[in-house]
Fold this sequence. Notes:
This is Amino acid decarboxylase. Keywords: Decarboxylase, Lyase, Pyridoxal phosphate. This protein is α/β, with parallel strands linked by helices. It has a domain at 92-351: Aspartate Aminotransferase, domain 2 (3-Layer(aba) Sandwich). Helix content is 40%, strand content 12%. It has a 7-stranded mixed β-sheet, with helices on both faces. The protein has a 4-stranded antiparallel β-sheet with strand order 8-9-11-10.
Amino acid sequence: MDATLAADLTRLPALLDAVRDASAEALAGLDTRPVVPPQDGPPEPRPLPAEATGAAAALDEFRARWEPRLSASAGPRYLGFVTGGATPAALAGDWLTAVHDQNSNSAMDGAGQHLERETVSWLRELFGLGAAHTGTFVSGATQSNTVGLAIAREWLGERLGVSPAQDGAAALGPVRVLSGAPHSSIAKALSVLGLGRSALVPVPTLPGREAVDPAALDRALADTPGPAVVVANAGTVNTVDFDDLRAVAALKDRHDFWLHTDAAFGAFAALSPAHAHLTEGLDASDSVCVDLHKWLNVPYDSAVQFTRRRDLQARVFSNAAAYLGPLGADPDLVHLTPENSHRLRALAAWFTLRAYGREGHREIVERDTACARALGDLLDRDPALRLLAPVRLNVVCFTLAQDPTPERLTALREAVAAEVFVTPTVLGGTPALRAAFSNWRTTPADVRRTAEALRTAAKEIA
Length: 462
């Protein structure tokens, strides 16, 4: 063994203590450090070290050279991308995930699989899904949507008497995927799956809404030859609008389609009695996407996908190799996602669910939604800014009251970056910004700081 590696092994407890101290210092400073530090370009690249210098030296260089450039994305005013943080329990679980370093894919070494299945059952209960739904952890909402649509692709083949998994997507012929306001990852998934971005057919939404018009969807399905796929939304990115999932599912009485629901963060509305009605009908979906590094507040990367047709899922993703063992009646995780290597992502989720339960996570959801409403009220009273949509759950979509050009909004976003991070968007043709609340640390004090920073910057820009 290399002498430096051996020395690091000998002093591993001290090294972990040093990392713990560095981590505690970084987390303690989240409230005071710039949310997005000013950047003057990347540091000068350095060559790969030829000689070993050890983990302590690597930690020192990281803290001096890279850590100051990192955003405070784990903190309470990083309001872009619907980003959560990591609860204390999730952080502990993630550390132990690396410690135990499981590839949780095979029944031959099955403890990780069993832990994941228990965690999935907790999540299924959390979101109000029935026992017919099975689930698997994946890396994020894009992968979750891709897996759900891959199963939908195989369902289309089943209806048409072919198997795209065996014969290729071309065996299906033209495919139509109908949706009102799909997330960009849906088109990406269709591209990856060989169905093509042009398969996505936009369906009119309700006036002034991002929610699909059920009557328009009914007509579009009537005009669709053969079976189709419908992508419903449980929480759109810009305005957190929800399709009427019960009305969409009811259309199955008249039309033949697979219902995939993108509930990346909207599924968490089920935890709040005041908002749970928004997710009614979610259980009727044939597949569901939920992102966990958003409102569950576990570290990147983590999501879960659910489906009623695990048999079709295994047909798509089964992996034939002697060292993996047979497929079996209860497929190993290697047969259920694109990944052969499957990090024990479930452990961080298991930890935070075990530590805080339904009520702890309900409190996070309700506090974040209250913070979003409070920010919306403050911005609505500011003459320099205006809301573009009602605050339905946890996202505030707003713009400049006068001349909201992309350039002026970029100037506003950059002016407040040290205090709060928001992301650009366009709603109804109007350039805008959005603030998404999903971090477990965010409090009303952060709302006041955010509103004041935006108010001051908007006045200067005006």
